[in-house]
Amino acid sequence: MLTFRQGFLDELSKAEQYIGRFDRRKGHAFSDAVLEFVYGIIAPHPLAFPAYSHPLLPGRPLRRAVFQRHYVLLYELRPDNVVAVIDFHHTSSDVSQRPLSPDEDE
Question: Which residue in 20, 56, 83, 90 has the most C-beta neighbors within 10 A?
Answer without folding.
Answer: 83
